[in-house]
Amino acid sequence: MRFDRRTVMLLSGAHMAHDVYPAFLGVMLPLLIDELDISLALAGVLASMMRWTTGLQPLLGYWADRADTRYWVIVAPAVTASSMSLLGVAPNASAVVALLLLAGLSHAAFHPASGALTTRASGTEWGKGSSYFMTGGEIGRVLGPLFIGGLIGAFGLQASPAAAIPGLIASAVLWYRFRSTDMHGSGTSKPARFADAFRTGRTSVLLLSGAIMFRSTTNVAILIYYPTYAVDEGASLIVAALALAMFEVGAVIGTMTGGILSDRHGRTKVLLVGLLAALPPMVGAVMVGPTLIGVAMLTLGGLLWLSASGVELALMQQLLPDNRSTAVGLTYLARAVGGIVATMALGVVGDALGLGVALLGAIGVGAVAVVFMVALPEPDAVTQ
C-alpha cells in the first residue's frame, strides 16, 4: 500500500482542530487562579484533571482496534471545544474539574482511533504518517494559546465560550467527510490477542513507555506553567501566550522532521539525539526568562524536545503492529502519567521555591528518559 496523502492530511487536520482546545489551559490558568482565588498547588491539581481520563486510552484503543469508531473522530473536536471554552465562565473549582474531565474523556476517545488510522493510510512510511498526524496536533497547540489569549485579552475571560465555534464547525466538516467512511480499526484481519503481542515485545514497550513518561513531564511543565512563570516575571499575558506559541512553533518543525528522519535513520537514534540536544536550550530558556533570547531558546528547545512526538507514536505501533489503536492509547497513557505528575508536583514546588526552580527541576526529570532510550533496541523495519 502506498502513502495515502489525502487521508493522512484529513486526519492531521482533525488532530489540529481538536488539539487547539487543550492548549487553552496554560494561558487561562493565571486568570483562573485569580478568578477562583486558588493556590498554585490547587491549580496543579485542577490542571491534571484533563489527563486522568487518559488512563482509559489503552482500553478505548483496544475497542477501536475491533470496532468502527468514526464518530469518536467526528464528535471529539466539538466536545473538547465546548468543554475548554466554558472554563472562563465556570463558577467554581468543581465546575472546572467537571469540564476538564469531560475534555479529557473526549481527548482519550479521539487519539487512539485517529492515530492508528493514520499509520494504516501510510503504507510503510509510519514515521512520516505519524509526523504528519502529530504535526497537526502541534499546529493546533500553536494556534490555541494565540486564539484564546487574543480573545480573552480583547474581551475578557467571560468571552471564552465564543472560542468553541471553530471546534463545532470542525466536527460538522468531519461528519460530512467521514460519515460514510469505514473506520473499523482492524480492517480486514482480526487483531492479535493483546496479551500475546505484549508478551513478545514487553521489554521494548516498557522501556519506550518509561522514556515517554519522563520526557512528557518536561513538555507538560512548559505547556501548563510557563505562561504563569512568564507573567510572574513581569511579562504580559499576550507575551506569555506568544512565548508558548513559539515553543509550539518549534515543536511543529521538530515533529514533522523527527518522524521522517526516523524512517531513514532509525527511531531510537532520533529519539536519543533530539532529547540530548534539547537539554541546553530548555535550561537556558528558563534561566534567561521571557526575553527575546529566552523565547528563541524556548523555540529551539521545543523543536528538539518535541521531535520525539511522531517517532514515539510510530515506534509504539511498530512494537504492537496488530493492535495499533491500543498502542496509540498506551503512548498517550505514558504521556498522561508524566503530565499528571508534572502538573501536580510542580504546583507544590512552585509554591515553595518558585516556578523557575520548579521548571528547571522538571527538565532534569525529563532528562531521565535518556536512560530508557539508551536501553531501547531498534525494532525491525516496517513491512506494511
Structure description:
By secondary structure, this protein is mainly alpha-helical. The protein has one domain: MFS general substrate transporter like domains (Growth Hormone, Chain: A), CATH 1.20.1250.20. It contains 16 helices and no strands. α1 runs parallel beside α7 and α4 packs antiparallel against α14 (324-353). The radius of gyration is 19 Å and the shape is globular. The model has no long low-confidence stretch (mean pLDDT 84).
Task: Give a short synopsis of this structure.
The chain is mainly α.
- Please state the structural category: mainly alpha
Helix content: over 70%
Strand content: under 5%
N-to-C span? 7 Å
Largest sheet: none
- CATH architecture type: Up-down Bundle
Quick one: overall form? globular
Order of helices and strands: HHHHHHHHHHHHHHHH
Number-wise, the strands total: 0
CATH superfamily: MFS general substrate transporter like domains
- CATH classification class: Mainly Alpha
The tally of domains stands at 1
Q: Could you say what the CATH topology is called?
A: Growth Hormone, Chain: A
Count of alpha/pi helices: 16
Uncertain regions spanning at least 5 consecutive residues: none
Overall radius of gyration: 19 Å
Estimate the mean pLDDT confidence: 84
Tag the structure with descriptive keywords.
about 375 residues, mainly alpha
Write the layout of secondary structure elements.
Blueprint: H1 5-19, H2 24-36, H3 40-52, H4 57-64, H5 70-85, H6 93-120, H7 126-155, H8 165-178, H9 194-232, H10 237-265, H11 267-288, H12 292-305, H13 308-319, H14 324-353, H15 355-366, H16 369-375
